[in-house]
């Protein structure tokens, strides 16, 4: 591979991630277990307006699950999802761009190099571009584009920490690259992008929220059931589904189903819609909080302005 | 105009409009008061107080999130292994150990600005000049300060000499089987001026948080293995703790005016708006050694003007000294 001249590169010999061993008197790490019910969602932390230099921004986090024997190990058991999103625009298209009667939406999803167990590069790879396309489909159906002709809007997502593809210690999911983690990341991306769009003041028909569900194999390896908001390390997953859902219009703008769900397809989608409805409550709360907080800070700013010296330009 | 009614008549503009239209005179109007205060409410020599959070990333050996005002930076340090046998051109034996870190490329810092942190650095393009120069500055300061000894990164193995009749009690030989390579990935989440100080602070905070697992050479499997126990892991031994501080100079000098008439102010830790109107800037890197009682000047960069003369250099250095 050609070295990137614009960045500082790794040593020419190439490096390998460390290999950990467990001595005989040590317990190998145990797979985390799902402690919540099959129709319970993990807690979501969502906040808007974290990047003042952008028109709109939001931060999304699923805090790490409390686990029993986490301590004293260097190898983390599971990761938590951390996503930031900024929206730049709407702003005029460059002069040489072709005329567009609608708002041109472009999405950009990038994993941070330290987001996953395996270090990622700085150049976007195919999976990241694919996530961007999925996100764009999800958002395009929501934005009222014809209110901004001849303008563009960028949605930029940085994933500081991604979801894992499987339980790393059995080396199956994580190695095969089944991509279960990506789907869960997409659901987060949809929700956070929606919050950032609202923060940027871009007109939407409704707030869109992402939800995820999976067909998981039970412990006895014979039966299977549908669970919503799955964390891939906790389950054997057979099929997974992400939806972008508009609750007040009862519409789905994006649906991505992967794996063999056979007769359970409908149940899987219903569960994903249910998960999306749950994340919508968080979304609505965060937006509402930002709206009330903003009006408060605006009023304090106005009063501060009255007291302080307002510099005026004397003609 | 409907919204013209509630505005005062004449050329009086609202604060935000004034700041946007003519940033230079706006800053000047603030500074020329009896008690110079910057538009952001700080005194000229006042720094923004950074908040530092460490250890929040799961997949890094050390990490830090630093926020100073509206500039926020995330730094993750990840250690990977470079096998000694994989080095294509091994450096010669007599190389000074201090130069080995650079020669082998054991520190790989990269600053990424295209995370949507500001409208001028949109993603989709290769890193711009600012990002490249920031990466390079971090890299050169890390090497120049000799912050890490190569011995903290080397993985040694005591090799027993094969039984030899001629030399019965051969000394066990210590060989270096590999090195830790530290990938220092710095993402700017939010940019409002003075990225370099914040980036550097984040690198330092992440370094102090970094732990390297105990690693050894396994002769049977012929590879380096690591222990996953946190109790055996060691934190990095840092030789010094450099601190970077940046100052901008706002000057009313212009080619049309007499030089003696020009006024100038030194502003510590400039924000985005101030950076835009100040031409002259200066960065001082000071390293506190050991107990922090003494500090040495590590580097000094000044560009863009002649306001700070030889004598004036001392003043910002005093301010940045801990």
TrEMBL record, chain A:
Residues 1-41, 290-315 are annotated as: Disordered. It holds the Pfam family RNase_PH. InterPro entries: ExoRNase_PH_dom1, PNPase/RNase_PH_dom_sf, Ribosomal_Su5_D2-typ_SF, RNase_PH. Residues 40-202 form the Exoribonuclease phosphorolytic domain. GO terms for cellular component: cytoplasmic exosome (RNase complex); nuclear exosome (RNase complex); nucleolus. The keyword Membrane does not apply. Signal peptide: none annotated. GO terms for biological process: nuclear mRNA surveillance; poly(A)-dependent snoRNA 3'-end processing; rRNA catabolic process; rRNA processing; U4 snRNA 3'-end processing. Keywords: Cytoplasm, Exosome, Nucleus, RNA-binding, rRNA processing. GO terms for molecular function: RNA binding. It is found in: Cytoplasm; Nucleus. Residues 292-302 have a biased composition (Polar residues). SUPFAM superfamilies: Ribosomal protein S5 domain 2-like (SSF54211). Belongs to the RNase PH family. This is 3' exoribonuclease family, domain 1-domain-containing protein.
From TrEMBL, chain B:
It is found in: Cytoplasm; Nucleus, Nucleolus. Signal peptide: none annotated. Pfam families: RNase_PH (PF01138). Its main location: cytoplasm. One of its GO terms (molecular function) is mRNA 3'-UTR AU-rich region binding. Residues 46-213 form the Exoribonuclease phosphorolytic domain. InterPro entries: ExoRNase_PH_dom1, ExoRNase_PH_dom2_sf, Exosome_comp_Rrp42_subfam, PNPase/RNase_PH_dom_sf, Ribosomal_Su5_D2-typ_SF. Belongs to the RNase PH family. It comes from the Eukaryota. One of its GO terms (biological process) is TRAMP-dependent tRNA surveillance pathway. Keywords: Cytoplasm, Exosome, Nucleus, Ribonucleoprotein, Ribosomal protein, RNA-binding, rRNA processing. GO terms for cellular component: cytoplasmic exosome (RNase complex); nuclear exosome (RNase complex); nucleolus; ribosome. This is Ribosomal RNA-processing protein 43.
């Amino acid at each position: 591979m050609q070295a990137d001249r614009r960045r500082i590169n790794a040593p020419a010999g190439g490096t390998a991630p460390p290999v950990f061993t467990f001595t005989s008197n040590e317990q190998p790490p145990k797979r985390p277990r799902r402690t919540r019910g099959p129709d319970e969602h993990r807690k979501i932390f969502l906040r808007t307006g974290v990047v003042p230099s952008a028109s709109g921004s939001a931060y999304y986090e699923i805090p790490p699950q409390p686990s029993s024997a986490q301590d004293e190990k260097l190898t983390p058991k599971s990761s938590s999802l951390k996503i930031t999103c900024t929206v730049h625009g709407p702003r005029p298209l460059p002069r040489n761009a072709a005329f567009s009667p609608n708002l041109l939406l472009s999405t950009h999803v990038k994993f941070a190099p330290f987001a996953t167990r395996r270090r990622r590069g700085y150049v976007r790879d195919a999976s990241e571009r694919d996530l961007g396309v999925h996100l764009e489909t999800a958002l395009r159906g929501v934005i009222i584009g014809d209110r901004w002709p001849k303008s563009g809007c960028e949605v930029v997502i940085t994933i500081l920490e991604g979801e894992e593809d499987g339980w790393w210690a059995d080396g199956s999911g994580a190695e095969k690259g089944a991509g279960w983690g990506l789907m869960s990341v997409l659901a987060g991306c949809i929700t956070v992008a929606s919050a950032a769009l609202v923060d940027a003041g871009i007109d939407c028909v409704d707030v869109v929220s992402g939800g995820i569900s999976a067909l998981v194999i039970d412990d006895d390896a014979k039966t299977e059931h549908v669970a919503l908001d799955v964390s891939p390390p906790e389950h054997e997953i057979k099929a997974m589904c992400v939806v972008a859902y508009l609750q007040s219009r009862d519409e789905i703008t994006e649906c991505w189903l992967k794996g063999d769900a056979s007769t359970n397809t409908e149940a899987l989608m219903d569960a994903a819609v249910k998960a999306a409805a749950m994340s919508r409550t968080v979304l609505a709360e965060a937006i509402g909080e930002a709206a009330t907080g903003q009006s408060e800070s605006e009023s304090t700013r106005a009063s501060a302005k009255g007291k302080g010296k307002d510099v005026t330009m004397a003609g | 105009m409907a919204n013209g009614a509630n505005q005062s008549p004449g050329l009086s503009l609202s604060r935000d409009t004034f700041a946007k239209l003519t940033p230079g005179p706006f800053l000047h109007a603030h500074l020329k008061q009896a008690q110079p205060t910057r538009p952001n409410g700080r005194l000229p020599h006042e720094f923004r107080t950074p908040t530092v959070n460490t250890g929040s990333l799961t997949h890094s050996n050390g990490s830090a999130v630093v926020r100073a005002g509206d500039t926020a930076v995330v730094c993750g340090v990840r250690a990977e292994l470079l096998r000694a046998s994989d080095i294509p051109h091994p450096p010669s034996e007599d190389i000074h150990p201090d130069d080995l870190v650079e020669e082998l490329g054991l520190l790989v810092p990269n600053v990424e600005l295209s995370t949507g942190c500001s409208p001028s650095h949109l993603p989709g393009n290769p890193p711009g000049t600012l990002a490249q120069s920031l990466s390079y500055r971090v890299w050169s300061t890390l090497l120049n300060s000799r912050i890490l000894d190569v011995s903290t990164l080397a993985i040694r193995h005591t090799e027993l000499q094969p039984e030899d009749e001629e030399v019965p009690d051969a000394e066990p030989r210590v060989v270096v089987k590999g090195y830790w390579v530290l990938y220092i990935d710095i993402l700017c989440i939010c940019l409002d001026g003075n990225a370099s100080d914040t980036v550097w602070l984040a690198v330092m905070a992440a370094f102090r948080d970094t732990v390297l697992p105990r690693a050894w050479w396994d002769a049977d499997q012929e590879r380096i293995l690591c222990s996953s126990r946190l109790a055996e892991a060691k934190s990095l031994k840092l030789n010094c703790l450099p601190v970077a501080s940046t100052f901008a100079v706002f000057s009313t000098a212009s080619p049309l005016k007499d030089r003696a008439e020009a006024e100038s102010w030194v502003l510590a830790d400039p924000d985005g708006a101030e950076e835009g109107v100040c031409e002259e800037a200066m960065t001082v890197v000071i390293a506190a050694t050991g107990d922090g009682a003494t500090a040495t000047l590590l580097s000094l960069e000044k560009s863009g003007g002649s306001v700070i003369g030889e004598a004036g250099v001392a003043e910002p250095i005093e301010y940045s000294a801990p």
